[in-house]
Amino acid sequence: MRCAYLIWIGLALAGLGCGRYEVGPFIGAVREGNVSETRRLLKLGADPEGRAGINNWTPLMHAVHKNQTGTARALIEAGAKLDVQGAHNETALMMAAGYGQEEMVRLLLKAGADATHKEVHGLTALDLAATGVFDIDKITLTHCQTGAVKALLDHSPDLTVNEKAWGNVGRRVKSLAGCEDVVRLVEERRASLGARL
Question: Of 136, 137, 140, 138, which is closest to residue 127 (Cα–Cα)?
């Protein structure tokens, strides 16, 4: 049985190329943070909306995935749409928030990204920043992402954390992880909005 399991894992990894996939020179430049090459390829006609890779992400999503604010800025300047959705209705802002990328979150918000958009489970960028994400490439459930949370709270005074995400597990995990600032910021916002309702 163990041999069959190992063979299955081997076949699965071979099918995925062990995490390797072709994205082409444009997405490659975006993911590497090569701003000059990204701009050059955009001038030559590279599509700022062209989806690529195993997740079929936009170039902006690839920039966020690799935390490349320089190439994200170049894409935004070239007219990349900010709120294009991935397979689970996630946006580039939601990815940046979930990864705790404060600078990227601020860049996207300043450019006009929608902080109120919800993914398939009803979560917003603030929910993902406050609670963290369980992503194959980055697990941030126990990370204190205070900067990303603060950026979203500052930008959207009426935005609060989803009770389902925060009340069930999120608050406890953040407390256990020592993220007192995140807990305080979220609870202050929830209390403030509760008083106004």
Answer: 140
Q: Is 123 helix (H, G, I), strand (E, B) or coil?
A: coil
Contact 87, 132 (CB under 8 A): no
pTM of the predicted protein model? 0.87
Sign of CA dihedral 6, 11, 15, 20: positive
Q: Give me the residues paired with residue 52 across strands.
A: 57
What is the C-alpha end-to-end distance of the chain, expressed in Å?
Answer: 59
Find how far residue 196's CA is from the centre of its chain: 30
- Kindly compute the dihedral angle of the four CA atoms of residues 152, 158, 161, 162, in this order, to the nearest 10 degrees: -140
Q: In terms of Cα–Cα distance, which of 9, 44, 17, 41 is closest to 28?
A: 41
Predicted confidence (pLDDT) per residue in 27-83, tens digit = 999 999 999 999 999 999 999 999 999 999 999 999 999 999 999 999 999 999 999
Rounded Cα gap, residues 30 and 34, in angstroms: 6
